[in-house]
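Q: Here's a chain of 370 amino acids. Please give me its 3D structure as tokens.
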Amino acid sequence: MTEGATGSVVKSPPTIVVAGGGTAGHIEPAMALADAVKRLRPDATVVALGTPKGLENELVPRRGYPLELIPPVPLPRKPTADLLRLPLKVRDSVKQAREILDRVGADVVVGFGGYVSLPAYLAARGRVPIVVHEANQSPGLANRVGARFAKRVAVAVPGTPLPNAEVVGIPLRRSITSLDRAALRAEARKHFDLDPDAPTLLVFGGSQGARTINNAVSGAAKELADAGIGVLHAHGPKNTLVVQEFPGRPPYVPVPYLERMDLAYAAADMVLCRSGAMTVAEVSAVGLPAVFVPLPIGNGEQATNAKPAVDAGAGLLVLDADLTPAKVAELVIPRLTEPSELAKMSAAAVGMGHRDADEVLAKIVLEAAK
């Protein structure tokens, strides 16, 4: 901020540092926020903070934002005496984060949780305003710490136990929130070599895939084909998936990774997936009925994430241990072959979520930057 010739205050373009590395669930909301900030303030600078091994090294440059790297700080599930004493690894990461904040001239730090956020919060404390965004109803340690001295705390769902929490939803890409599935359906089916007319199931288990989901759905391939159901299955880049072909039936299309999630959603009539907060938000935003299979590790947050959609009638929940080929056929076939049931579930999904969460959070961040 500088002073003009007449003594009036002239606002400098703000510099926003987003800390959300490690997994797509942390990175994608950060990038959606970055895009929203640039729409509202084209002169703003957005810098991402990450670690050398996280997915941000692929995703952030692809979105056109500069990426600064610091050492990761693995976080325990609960505060420990060692953490409170700031061991050497934490101190080193905080020191490097502080140097980056000074060098880029940060006006606000926005954290989304995970390995990157804690050092960012500690580096910014008392120096740069902090905004925390928590996607899960059960916050992780980084955001529990950061919320104690944040200027604003934004959360995805009501009841999140953080101080002064404001419910804004999860920032999503505009390609998702503005998606017209019906208008893109033909193009999407052609893009993936899917049957243009058959009811189609979209399957994915996160950016790396999920073995339980892969085995269960591929094991149900014959039953799905016999029912006239096509499948688009993202099995993960490190996994292989061998599926028998059934001539004359709708194709079962396995792919390692989905570069165009917007087209994948447009091609689908139903989805079977994990229930990370980001996934649930996207699936609800585009109005897809879902079978959610929560990740069976952690503190149970994925089951919690899916509960509002399940309660609203937009989704079904099946435990990872219970997901078998027979269970896939039992849950998917009656719904994908009954248009009225699909329409009812889709309508319930569309009524959920916060489609403008990206710009709501961007306005909070820009206000904090002042």
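Q: Can you summarize the key feature?
A: The chain has two domains: 2-172+355-369, 175-350.
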